[in-house]
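3.2 Worked example (two chains)
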Amino acid sequence: MNHAPTALQLKIKEFIHIQWEQPTLHHHFYHDNLKLSL
């Protein structure tokens, strides 16, 4: 098992970074995803 970051881990890091940098953008992104999943 290697320790290279997977695409999912990179996405999560990117997501957390966006949430930290721009909480309002994160809120809209989450809201849109919630609507799409319903």
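3.2.1 Second chain
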Amino acid sequence: PVVACLMDLATGGAYYLATAADQIIAHPTTITGGMGVILNLYNLRDAMMQFNILGVPIKAGPYTDLGSPIRELDDQGRALLQHLADQYHARFQEVVRMCRPQHDPARQEDFDGRVFLAQEAMDRGLIDGIGYLDDAIALARRLAHAPQAKVVVLHRSYDAARSVYATTPIQPIQTNLFPLSVPGFDRSQLPTFLYIWQPEPTLERRATGR
């Protein structure tokens, strides 16, 4: 059996991952839900013009640079990106309906990106119980019929892992230690579609560990 324990913040992609578990337990103060999709794009043309900087892309295909910050997004380009976002969103809804049969499919408002505290999430069938990590471990033991099972912590080589709470935030694959110019090496820093609750853009970097 797989038991997921949601702690302080488990929205968007974190909840997406949790749906694969047999049971989901959340702290009483957990914020979860956030089942939406967002793509952050910025128009920097005016800012660049103030510094006399002009982007001159050479491209084949009118939408090769779709979403570029150096040109305005036209209606057709916006429609193309919206279509992608809608497809990601539909996939999220499909996963929740498949993995969480106790969730009422008529509650379409649950998929509009809003977030919930644990009690409301449980009332809506998004989680199975409220508790702490110890409760989740105890539940896993009961489901596995292994009351004496010990906890094994899988951790990164640079994690101290002195307890089940000792983790290190995900670090980006790019660092200043490797000043390389390799095509595609900075892909994880580029704009991308995110399953994330994001009330303000700077959370993108903090929430994804980048």
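3.3 Remarks
The longest strand covers residues 3-6.
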